[in-house]
Specification:
This protein is mostly helical. It has one domain. The protein is built from 12 helices and no strands. The longest helix has 27 residues.
Length: about 270
């Protein structure tokens, strides 16, 4: 999980470096690399490219593409730390959507943690005059679609291999972003090509190691490591992009992370009881 978190931080950094290239173009290049690697892996494993639970695989693909597109747009237009922190709302939206999609029950304490997370976002927005409501809204919407994508992944847990689930993102993203690029294309130059390669390969590595971590017997121990990404975002934003956050911005960020971790703790206790 530490490798995964570090790679995602690296990918986010290069996405922000390439803020002169539209988000859909970044996703197009990322998808081409991911699609190639996934197909090679699936062929070696002798699996079906189309998977089994196709309805939820397609939902996972569309939700994931929407979430990442909105996240990249947000990442390119607001501070790295704020963009990443707002994205951390996704586990909470995952839990809320699971009420309707997976028929899961939410404990009273979890609603308190949801309120904590909202408070964190309000603090970030309220004390950051450079953060517009528009990009804040896109960030939250990205988290909602990410929550839908995570629920779709859970729907496919017993029917499809992780690589088949991962495949549906580039499978859907590649043609959509290719058409989009026809109408809005910015020619990469020089180092841009290397950065695009790092984004594509880095995301694939990050997803693979995250999946391995979440499939291990020590999932409850490794999950909190993911939120080291908030610290990465603050440090990279400060030292690389010269982003200056107010103390209250940092407080808001850690309130969001704490709310997500506390909500995760409720699920761990429930699993032990069951």
């Amino acid at each position: 999980m530490l490798i995964s978190t570090t790679m995602f931080a690296l990918v986010n950094t290069f996405v922000k470096f390439l803020n002169h290239i539209p988000a859909h173009e970044l996703i197009f290049f990322r998808s081409i690399i991911s699609l190639t690697l996934c197909i090679i892996t699936i062929k070696k494993m002798g699996l079906s490219i189309w998977g089994n639970n196709r309805k939820w695989l397609v939902i996972r693909g569309f939700a994931g593409v929407t979430a990442l597109t909105l996240f990249f747009i947000t990442l390119q237009n607001i501070s790295l730390a704020n963009a990443v922190s707002i994205q951390y709302l996704s586990p909470l939206f995952t839990a809320i959507l699971a009420i309707f999609l997976l028929k899961e029950k939410v404990k009273p304490a979890q609603w308190v943690y949801f309120a904590m997370a909202i408070l964190g976002v309000v603090i970030i927005k309220g004390f950051d005059k450079n953060l517009s409501w528009f990009y804040l809204g896109l960030g939250v919407l990205s988290s909602i679609f990410a929550g839908l994508a995570y629920n779709a992944v859970r729907k496919c847990k017993d029917t499809d291999k992780p690589v088949q689930v991962v495949l549906y993102f580039p499978l859907i993203a590649t043609p959509i972003m290719a058409v989009w690029c026809l109408f809005d294309w910015v020619q990469p130059h020089g180092w841009d090509w290397l950065f695009l390669l790092i984004i594509g390969a880095g995301t694939q590595v990050a997803q693979i190691y995250m999946t391995k971590a979440l499939h291990s017997d020590e999932t409850s121990k490794v999950t909190p490591v993911k939120y080291i990404g908030a610290i990465y975002a603050i440090l990279i934003g400060y030292f690389v992009f010269d982003e200056r956050l107010l103390l209250l911005n940092i407080v808001g960020i850690f309130i969001i992370v704490a709310a997500v971790l506390l909500n995760s703790g409720v699920h761990k206790i429930r699993r032990r009881v069951n």
